[in-house]
Amino acid sequence: MNIIQQIKQTASQLVSLIKPDSDKVVIDCGNFEITKREIIVSFSILALMLIFGFSISEFIADKIEDEKRMYNQALQIDTKELFEYGMETGVGNAFVYGELKAVDPVTFEEIGDNWLWIEKERQEYTRHEREVRHEDKDGNVYYTTEEYWTWDTVFTESRHSEKITFLGVEFDYRKINKPSSHYIKTIYKGFNVRYEYYGTPPEHTGTIFTKLKDGTIEDNLHLYENQTIAEVLADKNSDCSQVVFWILWIILTIAAVRGFYYLDNSWLD
Predict the structure, then answer these.
(1) Are 203 and 250 contained in the same domain?
(2) Are strands 33-35 and 117-135 parallel, antiparallel or unpaired?
(3) Residue 215 is assigned to a structural domain of this protein
(4) What average pLDDT does the structure give for the chain?
(5) Count of CB atoms within 10 A of residue 248's CB?
(6) Do 46 and 147 fall into the same domain?
C-alpha cells in the first residue's frame, strides 16, 4: 500500500468520527477554503509523513554509519614503500597522501611552460541580431532589430600527459582526475580572432581514497588537493545528509498538506 492509499484509508476512518458540522468552512484562503473536516484529516497526512520520514531517515543514518566505518577503518598511507606493498597485497580501502606529477608534461608552442593538462579555445568576434520589444506612450507595442557582438567559441583543442606519478608510483593519466584548471592567457590574432588558454599545473599535493587491489589503484579518483588524510577524514565524518533530508522532507510535508487543502476533497463527504 503506497502513501496516498494509506492517507485516504486513515482519512476515511477519521471522517466517520467527525461531527456533523465538520464541513463548516474554518479558513477562507481566497482561491480555496479549508473546512473543519479537512483540518482533522490533514493531521493524518502529517502523521504518515512523519512515519515515512523517520523510516527514510533511519535508512540514511545506516548508510552514513556504514560509510564512516569504511573511512575510519581504511589504511592511511604516506610512504611509497607502504603504497606499493598495499597494492601488491590488495589491502583494500586506503587513504593515500602524496604528490601528483606529470611524467610527460604538455604545452602549446606559443604558451610555453609545462602542464599536466592544457586547452586552447579559438574565439571569433561575431555579429548577431535580435528583436527588441518597445512600447510607446499609448501602449502600442513595436519591435526593432538590434545588432550586438560577442566572442563565440569556434573550436577547442586540449592535450594532457599520458603518464603521471602519485607518491612516486607511475600510473596512466586516467587513474586520477585532473585537479581544477585555471585561465593562463589570451592571444589575439587580429581584431576578430583570439585564443584563450586554460591549464592545470604539472605538480599537485593531496589525498586520494581508493581500493588497493590487483597491483594498482582504481580509475578516475578524486584528488583532495592540499588536504591531508586527517583533514579529509574529518570532512567525511561531518556528514550533514540528515539535516538536509529533514529540511527537504519538512518542505515536502508542508507542500503535501497545502496541496490537500487546495484540492476538491468531495470524497470526504
Answers:
(1) no
(2) unpaired
(3) yes
(4) 86
(5) 10
(6) no
Name the DSSP letter for residue 140: -
Decide: 166 and 206 in contact? Cβ < 8 Å.
no
Beta-sheet strands, E only, within the chain = 25-28, 33-35, 75-77, 92-102, 117-135, 141-160, 163-166, 169-172, 182-188, 193-200, 203-212, 224-225
Q: Facing residues of 100 across strands?
A: 166, 204
Mean pLDDT of 137-156: 93
Give the model confidence (pLDDT) of 189-231 as tens digits: 999 999 999 999 999 999 999 999 999 999 999 999 999 999 9
Question: Do 45 and 172 belong together in one domain?
Answer: no
Predicted TM-score (pTM) of this structure: 0.71
Asked if the structure places residue 207 within a domain, the reply is yes
pLDDT value of position 267: 45
Residues 141 and 86 in one domain: yes
Q: How does pLDDT run across 156-197, given as a tens digit for each residue?
A: 999 999 999 999 999 999 999 999 999 999 999 999 999 999
| Beta-strand relationship, 92-102 and 182-188 | unpaired
Q: Which domain holds residue 258?
A: 3-70+241-268
Strands 169-172, 163-166: pairing kind: antiparallel
How far, in Å, are 119, 121, 182, 184 from residue 152 at the CA level? 16, 10, 19, 18
The CA-CA-CA angle for residues 263, 268, 269, to 5°, reads 115
Backbone phi, psi, residue 8, to 5°: -65, -40
The rounded distance, in Å, linking the Cα atoms of 185 and 215 is 40
Mark whether 169 and 94 lie in a shared domain: yes
Total count of domains within the chain: 2
Residue 220 sits in the same domain as residue 98 = yes
DSSP 8-state assignment for residue 22:
G
